[in-house]
């Protein structure tokens, strides 16, 4: 019993959970050869798995696929192919297109083209894989075509809806444009009329401004003349006040002299007629009162009227 056959048997036993009935359960599950009747397929598998039997790579491949999870298929087949290679003098498993690994070393990479196949079974397997791939791609393309047709029909329907909506929107937009255009033309006419009124108003205001400027120049000139006259009048008033003050002082001095003269006269009269005259004090007070027919005296600091000469 070579190592490949031994490992395959152990793989089936582990999968089934024991040796009793393991091969029968495996054959029922694996469908080792669908071209043969069930009994013949079972007998053929037993012939390959018995200690002195010659196991086929097809049975090894089915055992790995049935008994192990999918994520362990490639690595297990690579190692079993390496044992097959070593035990059979460097001959690769017939129909196997994957890598061959012996003691961790890659003896052969995965076959990608039928031209690289070393045997007819591998070439057939590669051609079948290429055929299956092409059929799968064809089926995918057909499915894509069907989906694209559905999408095209939906898009054409949607396009018709969009076209109808666009035509409706276009009609609404054109009506809106016409309405807006009429409104804009009306607004433009109103703006032009308003502009004409504003221009007229501006012209009138400019004329008024020129009149005001001329009036201001006249008023400035009149103000300057009035200020000059006021300055002259102030100087004249100051001179008149100074003159009145001088005359008042002169009058006061004259009154003082007259009062002194009257006192002297009163004294002389008293000596001449002592019993016919009023008292000197009364006469003196009456005589001291200045003559003020216009009542300027007693009005505070107001200056008396000027004396015209």
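^ Assign residues to that structure.
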């Amino acid at each position: 019993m070579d190592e490949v056959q031994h490992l395959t048997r152990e793989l089936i036993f582990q999968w089934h959970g024991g040796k009793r009935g393991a091969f029968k359960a495996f054959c029922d599950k694996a469908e080792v050869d669908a071209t043969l009747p069930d009994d013949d397929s079972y007998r053929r598998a037993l012939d390959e798995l018995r200690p002195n039997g010659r196991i086929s790579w097809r049975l090894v491949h089915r055992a790995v696929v049935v008994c192990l999870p999918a994520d362990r298929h490639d690595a297990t087949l690579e190692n079993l192919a390496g044992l097959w290679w070593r035990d059979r003098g460097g001959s690769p498993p017939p129909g196997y297109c994957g890598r061959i690994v012996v003691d961790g070393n890659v003896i052969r990479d995965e076959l990608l083209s039928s031209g690289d196949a070393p045997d007819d079974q591998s070439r057939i397997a590669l051609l079948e894989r290429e055929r299956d791939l092409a059929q799968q791609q064809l089926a995918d393309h057909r499915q894509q075509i069907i989906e694209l047709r559905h999408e095209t029909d939906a898009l054409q329907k949607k396009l018709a809806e969009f076209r109808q909506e666009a035509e409706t929107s276009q009609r609404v937009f054109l009506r809106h444009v016409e309405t807006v255009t009429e409104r804009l033309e009306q607004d433009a006419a109103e703006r032009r009329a308003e502009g004409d009124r504003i221009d007229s108003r501006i012209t009138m205001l400019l004329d008024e401004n020129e009149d005001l400027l001329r009036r201001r120049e006249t008023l400035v000139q009149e103000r300057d003349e009035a200020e000059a006259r006021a300055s002259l009048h102030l100087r004249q008033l100051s001179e008149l006040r100074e003159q009145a003050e001088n005359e008042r002082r002169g009058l006061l001095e004259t009154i003082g002299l007259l009062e002194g003269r009257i006192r002297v006269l009163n004294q002389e009269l008293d000596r001449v007629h002592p019993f016919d005259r009023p008292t000197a004090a009364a006469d003196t007070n009456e005589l001291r009162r200045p003559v003020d027919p216009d009542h300027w005296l007693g009005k505070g600091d107001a200056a008396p009227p000027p004396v015209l000469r």
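The radius of gyration is 72 Å.
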